[in-house]
Amino acid sequence: MELYHNDHFLELLHSETFWVAIAFCIFVILSFKKTKKILIESLDKRIEEIKKRINEAKKLKTEAENNLNEAKKNLKKMVDDKKRIINEANEEAENLEKKLLNEEKIYSERLKKRIVDRIEQSKKQAVNDIKEIALNISIKSIKDLLNNEKEITDDQLISKSITNLFYKSKKEQKNYKNL
After folding, report:
1. What is the rounded end-to-end Cα distance, in angstroms, of the chain?
2. Does residue 113 sit in helix, strand or coil?
3. C-alpha angle 169/146/155, rounded to 5°?
4. pLDDT confidence of residue 163
5. pLDDT number for residue 26
6. How buried is residue 129: exposed, middle or buried, by Cβ count under 10 Å (0-12/13-18/19+)?
7. Taking the CB of residue 161, how many other CB atoms lie within 10 A of it?
8. Residues 172/130, Cβ–Cβ less than 8 Å
9. Residue 145 half-sphere exposure, CB side, CA atoms within 13 Å?
10. What pLDDT shows up at residue 176?
11. Cβ(124)–Cβ(174) under 8 Å?
12. What is the mean pLDDT of each successive set of 10 residues along the chain, which is 179 residues long?
């Protein structure tokens, strides 16, 4: 059997199919080495690209986080500024309101004082006018009395003078009120 085995082996060595299969295996092995090298280089390049993209993404993420933090700071500052401005405006409005109310009070008091002064002046003038009218009536009554030279008793004279004073006073008061 051993001979059969050797013969078979010799036949196999002289066979074209065997040598084509061996050449194909050598070709595959050589191709695999070159292809492996090309595949490894290609994968290495792809890995490098992916690393670059990841690094760029990390940088973009960091920049975005920084921008977000800065935007948050700016927003907080703007909110704080807005609150401060509103508070200042409210304080200024309150101060202005107090000032205006104070000025209005002062103006009101001055106007009230002027009105009271005018009323007092009018009262004094009215009293003076009444005194003058009473004096004029008294003088006229005395002149009338002296012109008539009738003998009139003291009681009649007093009574007539009072009556004349009363009627003329009423008449003058009506005239004064109509002014």
Report:
1. 167
2. helix
3. 65
4. 76
5. 86
6. middle
7. 16
8. yes
9. 18
10. 58
11. no
12. 58 79 85 79 90 93 93 93 92 91 90 90 86 81 69 64 72 62
Q: Residues 110, 116, 117, 122: is their CA dihedral positive or negative? A: positive
CA distance 162 to 171: 14
Tokens of 103: 């000025």
Q: What is the mean pLDDT of the chain?
A: 82
Q: What is the pLDDT of residue 1?
A: 43
Residue 153: left (phi > 0), alpha (psi -120 to 50), or beta?
A: beta
Provide the token pair at 117: 């002064």
Residue with structure tokens 């009262």?
Answer: 123
What is the predicted pLDDT for the residue at 6? Answer: 66
Q: In the 8-state DSSP scheme, what is residue 152?
A: -
C-alpha to C-alpha distance for 32 and 46, rounded to whole angstroms: 20
Question: 177 in the Ramachandran plot: left (φ > 0), alpha (ψ -120 to 50) or beta?
Answer: alpha
**Residue 125 token pair:** 């003038």
Q: Which residues contact 145 (CB under 8 A, 6 or more apart)?
A: 152, 157, 160, 161
